[in-house]
Design the sequence.
């Protein structure tokens, strides 16, 4: 029996920090295996998957100024950090028998394909997982913005933002026990309330293109599968 899907093509946004696991820095191999297993579940039921991963476990461009590094240079270092994470993810996925393509916004032919929209869409149609590295290729843009941009370009049904909390709250649930969770919220409310879901550029881009954003707990097994099959998981940001 065919699984009924609510989302057929999704872009999964993961933070670089999510790869640290219990290590506190760098990459925890256990997390790579976990992500590969979770993504494989939705690929098996016919979902086309692409991924944008941050680089915060290795280097954050925003920290550049504190270290006496020019912001543009810092952001370029951050973009390269995302490529390191993307290669690690690609390796984990392929070890799990999943065909994967890595595409980067900065050309590095020996490592990855350059991002070409039509080629990315063709890979997805053929059932390959596509990982987008190096952000947008430009400084001053976060990987959240890269995720929103790529999702719009490849005509994804939604952006799934995997976090360690189970949705969007009116305040930080890790600091405030009284925090109230939203099941759904509008783009305008996210912007007006200053909720730290994604940065303003990313949310604005999603709003302009009517692209839903689902914020959910990626650390809970099967949440991803529950999401694509229409179960109420996390918080959905729409009009």
Sequence:
């Amino acid at each position: 029996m065919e699984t009924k899907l609510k989302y057929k093509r999704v872009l999964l946004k993961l933070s670089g920090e999510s790869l640290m696991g219990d290590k506190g820095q760098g990459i925890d191999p256990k997390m790579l295996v976990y992500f590969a297993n979770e993504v494989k579940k939705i690929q098996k039921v016919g979902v086309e998957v692409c991924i944008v991963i941050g680089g915060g476990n290795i280097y954050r461009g925003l920290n550049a100024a504190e270290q006496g590094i020019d912001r543009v240079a810092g952001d370029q270092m951050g973009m390269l950090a995302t490529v390191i994470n993307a290669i690690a993810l690609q390796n984990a996925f392929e070890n799990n028998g999943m065909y994967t393509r890595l595409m980067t916004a900065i050309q590095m032919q020996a490592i990855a394909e350059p991002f070409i929209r039509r080629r990315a869409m063709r890979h997805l149609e053929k059932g390959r997982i596509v990982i987008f590295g190096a952000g947008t290729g430009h400084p001053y843009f976060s990987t959240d913005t890269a995720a929103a941009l790529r999702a719009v370009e490849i005509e994804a049904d939604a952006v799934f933002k995997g976090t360690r909390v189970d949705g969007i709250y009116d305040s930080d649930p890790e600091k405030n026990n009284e925090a109230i969770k939203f099941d759904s919220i509008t783009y305008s409310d996210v912007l007006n309330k200053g909720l730290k879901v994604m940065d303003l550029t990313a949310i604005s881009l999603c709003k302009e293109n009517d692209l839903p954003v689902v914020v959910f707990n990626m650390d809970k097994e099967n949440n991803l599968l529950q999401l694509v099959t229409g179960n109420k998981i996390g918080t959905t940001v729409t009009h």
Notes: The chain has one domain: 9-238.
